[in-house]
Design a protein that fits this description.
InterPro entries: Heavy-metal-associated_CS, HMA_dom, HMA_dom_sf. This is Cation transporter. This protein is α+β, with helices and mostly antiparallel strands. Helix content is 37%, strand content 31%. The chain has a 4-stranded antiparallel β-sheet with strand order 2-3-1-4, covered by helices on one side. The relative contact order is 0.33.
Length: 65
């Protein structure tokens, strides 16, 4: 499980956008978004760099937790 700090998330649309971005790279990825903690946890075979890039492409500021 990889954990990332993501700034700029505030609603269900953000959750959906991030989940879809990661699952576009790995359809089997388990994506857990915590809006309150501003974290995203991803269980995937993707490298951390690929997950970071997918979330950044959606316009969010992201860093490894």
């Amino acid at each position: 499980m990889q954990t990332f700090n993501v700034q700029g998330m505030s609603c269900g649309h953000c959750v959906k956008a991030i989940t879809q971005a990661v699952q576009a790279k790995d359809p089997t990825a388990d994506v857990q978004v915590d809006l309150g903690a501003k974290t995203v946890r991803v269980q995937s075979s993707l490298a951390a760099d690929a997950v970071l890039a997918a979330i950044q492409k959606e316009g969010y500021e992201v860093s490894p937790a």
